[in-house]
Amino acid sequence: MAHRFITQAVIIGARVFGRAVAEAYRQAAASSKYAQSSIGQSGGSTSKNFVSSGLTLDEACKILNVKQPQGGQANMEEVTERFKRLFDVNDPTKGGSFYLQSKILRARERIELEAREAQEAAESEAEAREGWKPKIWKDR
């Protein structure tokens, strides 16, 4: 009689484990589809959408409550000000949430990345317009 209970427990455990694995696979597949669809919308760069823990630029702007950068230009003073205030408010030693604090940090990093990429693109575009001018050390 005991072997019957043990067999049933093993079978039930295997079913639960199998369902958990199947659900995890479905979630991974859905996440992959979402990432691929956003790549198609943005022009093909995975790094632009999911660099900082999967945050998109839109999500980062909503977290910090700032406007999206227009033409790659972000108001970094406003971003820094909002970041400092929200980061301090959510300090775990003051009763805040570590999870929210990390989301705020990732949002700031995401916006800074976008601004840095836009600045690099503008610099390379300006260099292309002006032509390549090597920097030469002149005698003093």
Write the layout of secondary structure elements.
Blueprint: H1 2-42, H2 46-49, H3 57-64, H4 76-89, H5 98-130
Helix pairs in contact: 3-5, 4-5
Give an account of the 3D structure.
By secondary structure, this protein is an all-alpha fold. It is built from 5 helices and no strands. It has helices at residues 2-42, 46-49, 57-64, 76-89, 98-130. Helix 4 packs antiparallel against helix 5. The mean pLDDT is 83.
Q: Note the total helix count.
A: 5
Number of strands: 0
The share of residues in helices is over 70%
Would you tell me the structural class of the helices and strands?
Answer: mainly alpha
Radius of gyration: 24 Å
Order of helices and strands: HHHHH
The overall pLDDT, averaged over residues, is 83
Quick one: overall form?
elongated
**End-to-end CA span:** 98 Å
Percentage of residues in strands? under 5%
Largest sheet: none
Which spans have pLDDT < 50 for at least 5 consecutive residues?
none
Could you give a short description of this structure?
This protein has 140 residues and is mostly helical. The protein is 71% helix and 0% strand. It has five helices and no strands.
